[in-house]
Specification:
By secondary structure, the chain is of the alpha/beta class. It is built from 10 helices and 12 strands. The strands form 2 sheets. Strands 3, 4, 5, 6, 7, 8, 9, 10, 11 and 12 form a 10-stranded parallel β-sheet that branches. The protein has a two-stranded antiparallel ribbon with strand order 1-2. α7 packs parallel to α8. The longest helix has 15 residues.
Length: 328
Amino acid sequence: MNTISPAVSLTPAAAFPAGTAKWTVSQVEALYQLPLMDLLFRAQQVHREHFDPNAVQRSALISIKTGGCPEDCNYCSQSARYKSTEREALMQIEDVLSAAREAKAKGATRFCMGAAWRGPKEKELEVVTQMIREVKSLGMETCVTLGMLKDGQADKLKDAGLDYYNHNLDTDSEYYDKVITTHKHSDRIDTIAQVRQAGIKVCSGGILGLGESRRNRAAMVAQLANLNPPPESVPINNLVAIPGTPLAATEKVDSFEFVRTIAAARITMPTSFVRLSAGREAMSDEMQAMCFFAGANSIFYCDKLLTTSNAGTSRDLELFDKLGLRPI
């Protein structure tokens, strides 16, 4: 058994049984402080206990309604406050279905749909539920991110057959108001609770590079891990700095710090899919390989995310071949 600190010692599995204990921020921060090789070894042990280490889930993402969001998230090009993205109307159902067919043909198994809303209105939700039904009919898993939900809306999404609802915590609760002021961290938790109550799986993660400290990163990981149960899918994003947004000039996170976060997420959430998400386009093959070794086992497999470029399916196929990875 390796000792992390005089006060904290974890087994090789380094995980608490669900519902029996909670991760403290200090325990997660202690993981970050391990020598990198020890941390990666521990994360790989956990990963192999719960997953095929050479299999990676591939999800496609599309923006079904772009721009014009009233929120003030300092990292987001879709906020109407920063005028970084033109506002567009909600996509037509057939156009969404066409994109889903193309994604499936390329090998994606989950289709994620995002809308730039504070929360959906009832008429908008009716259209989205039809999109969900149509995509489900193709045999794909479905995920949506629509902002904060009102009472009863999660049930309607469940009735449509929705598999996952994405609602990222983004960052540590104590740092949250440095990034977003138009809603609270607790509002995010409330929507996640509604999604859980409706019987929908949760996709929730965070963003690195918002100006946060390592302590904030550790706290964010702990807050995700301590959700009961933890999210089934945990996207870890590396900020793509968008010109015109308040965080456009923020210093980039060190690559090894990003890998450490992937490992911490894997260790603290052993049965969750950890997704190597936004910012992957700028990562080298070597960095991505380290992230996979640290426990990432999901990617966005498409040429574009909501408003930014992605690594691209051709590059991903080449990388999978180099690393001997298989799609799930």
